[in-house]
């Protein structure tokens, strides 16, 4: 018989109700291994419980407003520094109709609008990357610019007496790095990246994503509006129906949701702690077996999570060539996801070192980047970034071996989208109804989006 997981919250104020059972904080306290401070931080506020109109996902006018008011004014990660390691390397970042070419010069990385000042030709096509550029030469009429954006040459210069060499430069955009990610902003008056990222740099002080490398990168087309697809990754509520195999080991309904600031939210889901709401209580040996080990191999007097962590620490440490001795159980095992508005998620964990990015391809299709960022080996040598694997809408993540078991989980997530998108358009109700706590990040995301759209 399934045990009830519902608690009546009548006596509580809205947003105050929580699922009974140990919280991530309780699980971490039981670990007793002093994780970095940010894992003990908690910040939630009730943001209202009104329905959210589906037109925000489906209406082309709303989509256009996102492009003109939001995508044009937010910091977005364009690429990793390791993808453009040498002078002359470039990477094209596209979002909606915007296109930016990120170029490493001799002195620093710059971002330019990927559109020739002459008649608008793109210097490089969508999604292109490469190396060896001494300068940027337009493939249409051959005008060229130095890697700092200054004019280099105009063929038939005599025909352009009205051009001032000094001002006929490439349009440079704000560009800065955090954690090895190169961010760009289409707003030339943008606030500094560090201010935009709010609590993120402080939280990631002990999780230097710059000291990681791309061990896997996929780009997949998803059916549905970019917000709908992204929101499928912002809550753990869907584990109950979408990932039933996780029900034995994950404290999914006890996930902690944090709303730190306008641009930064987080969830913290313990994955190897057992599920207090499983149909029956598992013994530690059963939990250990559910985590993929021989039940009888559980050392006497040791909890399953600790024993599992010790094994993972050892195995992953030797596989990655890194010493994971000082990495806490939670950092090692749990699903810790920071979302940075508008479209990126950063997981500092070791077994789940994921990075997500969601970009619209029109109102009804999304391009989803997934990276795995593995710690650099102890030798300090940076392995070359894994090449990008491009997956079509019907391709399975299980075809990418480096995902391991995650491939199936990602398929479960993304297989929902076709039917959710169809259902959103079929809805006569016309609104979605969100949970006060577990879906608070989605509501918060829309509230931040509105801040941009009204301006
Ligand atoms: S469009 Fe670039 S040189 Fe003419
Ligand atoms: Fe999921």
In short:
The chain has 455 residues and is of the alpha+beta class. Helix content is 23%, strand content 23%.
What does this molecule look like?
The chain is α+β, with helices and mostly antiparallel strands and 455 residues long. The chain folds into two domains: 281 residues, Naphthalene 1,2-dioxygenase Alpha Subunit, Chain A, domain 1 (Alpha-Beta Complex); 118 residues, Rieske [2Fe-2S] iron-sulphur domain (Rieske Iron-sulfur Protein, 3-layer Sandwich), CATH 2.102.10. It contains twelve helices and 21 strands. The strands form five sheets. Strands 14-15-16-17-18-19-13-20 form an eight-stranded mixed β-sheet. The N and C termini lie far apart (53 Å). It binds FE2/S2 (inorganic) cluster and fe (ii) ion.
For the record, what CATH class of the largest domain applies?
A: Alpha Beta
Shape: globular
Provide the structure class.
alpha+beta
How many structural domains are formed by the residues?
A: 2
User: What percentage of amino acids are in beta strands?
Assistant: 15-25%
| Residue-averaged pLDDT | 95
Key traits:
single chain, 455 residues, alpha+beta, Naphthalene 1,2-dioxygenase Alpha Subunit, Chain A, domain 1, Rieske Iron-sulfur Protein, 8-stranded mixed beta sheet, 5-stranded antiparallel beta sheet, 23% helix, globular, disordered N terminus, binds FE2/S2 (inorganic) cluster, binds fe (ii) ion
